[in-house]
Amino acid sequence: MQKGEINLKKIILTISISIVTIIILLSFIDRTPQQVSNNTADIVYSISSIPTNLKSIGDLDKRQQDIVCATSKGLVESDSDGNIQPALAESYEINDDGLEYVFKIRNDAYWSNGDKITPEDIVSFFREVITEDNEISALLNVFGAKDYLESDKTFAETVAITSDEDSIKIRLNSKDDGFIGELTKPQYRLRKDVLFWEDIALNYKNIPYSGDYYIDSINETEVVLKRSSKASVELAQTIHLVKDESEDLALAAFEIGNRDIVINPPKSQLERLKTEGKLIESPSNEALYLAFNANNSNFSNEVKNEIYRLVNEAIEEYQNQNNILVELAECSYFREDKEDLTKLQSRNVMVNTEKEITMPSKIVLVAQESLENKDITSYITNWFKNNTDIAIVVNLLSEEDMNLISEKNYYDIALVNVYAKLDDDEQLLNTISSFVPKDQREMINNSSSKAEKEELFAQIEEDLFNNYRILPLLFYNNTIAVDGNVDSSILDGNGNIDFKSIKK
To answer: pTM surpassing 0.90?
Structure first.
């Protein structure tokens, strides 16, 4: 081959590479056009999984709930400061000593298919939710709701949710100052044909939506939301919720401009993102508890006390190094309980005992296999190695095996991932039910009033502490990376993405 031919090939190759590079760069530029008066920009939002079932909202994580929030509106909603704002209802009033709520429905509220949203539509939705959903704790205080669920009577003749020409009325059994706040949650946003949402991938084209967006397409890797014709033109025209295989890949795409929002970026990058003003932090409802094997009679309460104290010392040091990710539970079952000092002072379970006790030389610890649990168990193991004479042996289990640990005798302690929100103690009870005596579970389930249930649960908490059954360790935080084009105040009062606030 001649020297001239070689040089010519090099020149052609260089030009080709340059052309490809320019095309790639242009594709990035064209992907996010920006307009002020009529926003046609796309928002690309990284999530860890694409949900197929959007019917039971309480079973979804916050990021899956975001899809419901984008495509559905509630009577009222909660802004980023936690203030109640009108949505489908232009106004509401509370009458009869706090028992009756009257919501005046907006005259300009429409479904995505162009049909007007009527008060009857909203009543029908509440009927569907009460009938089909199991996460409706707020609605169980509605007059007649329990009677309807436990009898053959119709909704219309039992449940005090009614409509007239321009409003709906909801009557409660007892005054509940938190009721209006409950209605801001995703599960109470207006959805048509709730049962169709159980297989959203099959039915999304046949569902009218009450929100600013509708589902345009959905598959295993992406959900595409399109702005409704009735929504403000200032909102992003299209939102792409893209499944990324790992946090690292999602952040890599974020760094080169291919993602606008990344959920739970790698913890090694949190401090940098925070310094750059690209990180949003918010409390989550996820918590980590320490459970003792109830079948192990080798550990006295004094030994359990000391083990719990030592684990907490390890967790405190872990939290000091990961303060963006986690918060110490400090004897609180619920995050909100941390302000109730009187309640917490009674739980002297981490006091270093003066009694002479014989500690075990080895402790077998189990936890469900996950990146977070692998990280924490590794830290606890090393902490015990460096600070005690006790060896920690860790077994990470599948979700199925983890659910069966109460029937097994191959462990001493367990790290249990739970949902711990003050207004949903039933879900917490369901999670830790294997550690709660059967008679206590039945008492909770059979309680007739909210006040009675709260009193019973308080008693159960104390029993769990006093007998070292299962005890809180830490609470997790949500972290969200956002680029410079996205407003940092994108979370509503419930911790969901408020897509109305996203204007690129």
So the answer is: no
